[in-house]
Amino acid sequence: MDRALADVYDVYTKSESTSGMNVHRILMLFGLLALCAGCIACEHHDLRGTWRQSKDGQTYFAVMDDSGGLCGQIQVDGKTWAHPIGDAAPIDPGPHTISCDGDIGFSVPSGSVYKFNYWGP
Question: What pTM, to 2 d.p., does this model score?
């Protein structure tokens, strides 16, 4: 009888540890999936600003800083930027020029919201 109980105990503990390992693997898998899903919405950056994928797949641009108030009229691609600081507006993807006491080049990735925030060299 004692041997039978020992066999049952061995089967129970082995199956318990095996299922515990499976739970651990499943939790690790969900963690990795969550990390990957989070990276889809990750914010990216370059010298001039940050961008992330837009919700509707369109391309937008926002000026987040007017160089500490030193810019008079901000120009984007030679046209007055009529949108308030921080408000995103539609723009074509690709290379552009922003002007405030000199021209600065930047590029807006397709399907993103690009937030321009650095006027420095």
Answer: 0.65
